[in-house]
Amino acid sequence: MKTKEMVFAALFAAFIGVLGMIPPITLGFIPVPITAQTLGVMLAGSFLGKKTGALSLILFIVLVALGLPLLSGGRGGLSVFVGPSVGYILSWPVAAFCIGYMTEKVWSSLRTWKVIVINLVFGVVLISLIGAPVMAIITHTSVWAGLVGATAFLPGDCLKAIIVAIIALQLKAVSPIEEKVNNT
């Protein structure tokens, strides 16, 4: 791994931590808050690509596990990994990898709508399909109830997917993916 990739991974881990400073929106019917951090997950995959994007989220999770209060609401430490948000948090590196993988595949013909679709499938649906069942198991509710409750995230997550697509296209020329494509 190049130094530049490690720096990008660290910067995105920090950026996602900064997004955690935006106060969460708590809902009374689901124990997982709405946060801005999934925007960072989608952007990591769309801008950094599969390997560096996933690495940035792994680094972020390690920092949270070490006790840094980087999650929305100032949460951090090992206790987070036994709470209802754990499925969502652990899905982030997987989502960033999948988003990055698909973005790299269509890089030469990248369009805003393609990035939106990629982020909707892997940044919204995949995260919910992993996070909601784990939340349901931890809260002793049915998986179906968890999935239905997770629909509360859809409007905001769809908006985040659109914002990420616009940002990713604007930054395409300086993306590490661009450098990777041009060197092959």
UniProtKB/TrEMBL annotation:
Membrane topology: Multi-pass membrane protein
Keywords assigned by UniProt, alphabetized: Cell membrane, Membrane, Transmembrane, Transmembrane helix, Transport
Organism, scientific name: Paenibacillus macquariensis
TM region(s), chain numbering: 55-73, 85-103, 115-138, 144-169
Chief location of this protein within or outside the cell: membrane
Family per record: Belongs to the BioY family.
Domain of life: Bacteria
Subcellular localization, as worded in the UniProt entry: Cell membrane
Hydrolase among keywords: no
Entry keyword annotation includes Cytoplasm: no
Protein name per UniProt: Biotin transporter
